[in-house]
Amino acid sequence: MRIGVFGGTFDPPHIGHQILAADAAAQLALDRVLWVLTPTPPHKLGSSISADRTRLRLVRAAAADNPLFEVSTVEFERPGPHFAADTLAALALRYPQAELFYLMGGDSLRDLPTWHEPALFLQRCAGVGVMRRPEAAVDMRRLEEVLPGITAKVQFFDTPLVDISASDIRARAAAGQPYRYLVPPAVFRWMERLQLYRSLS
Ligand code: ATP
Known about the structure:
single chain; Rossmann fold; 39% helix; 9 helices; alpha/beta; 6 strands; 6-stranded parallel sheet
């Protein structure tokens, strides 16, 4: 079983996330994409993030209509900060037979050496699925020098550049601007029902 590990804050999840997950699944021949909800990511400490249970509701709604998508709350089971290397270890316990493919953008690949325990991270995944981005071209030779073994693990995939971000959606909701078609219909319904992001803090 080949499992894609797709981590995010998903505040809210949007169609950019769905498109990425579907393209990764198709091009990396994944049997499943796990949407791993991050309680409080290290780089977002201090910013205000919607309640975990609210984001869980939204991400479940975004993942519900695709049988390849599954939501994982594995990061809720240990205190933060939540580093990718530790998440992979937790997922390996849960899915002992699976090969785990960590999904990320080209910019994150470039920054990988600065991540917490990058060598351990690499050792713990079968592959790294990287969204190819012309503007974030990665010098693999240099990366290989800093992080030996990375080249063999990286698999690029293509997905359209969808200029949608969760922060823009939050700003639109706060300003009373339309955001309906930027999110899956079920997410839109929850956002309206819960009146999410009506004021930005
Ligand atoms: P924010 O605007 O609050 O920073 P975001 O839209 O980037 O949020 P995250 O939950 O932080 O959403 O993203 C989870 C993952 O999805 C990250 O790896 C991010 O690079 C990727 N991602 C976010 N938006 C897009 C998009 N439009 N197309 C492809 N990938 C995306």
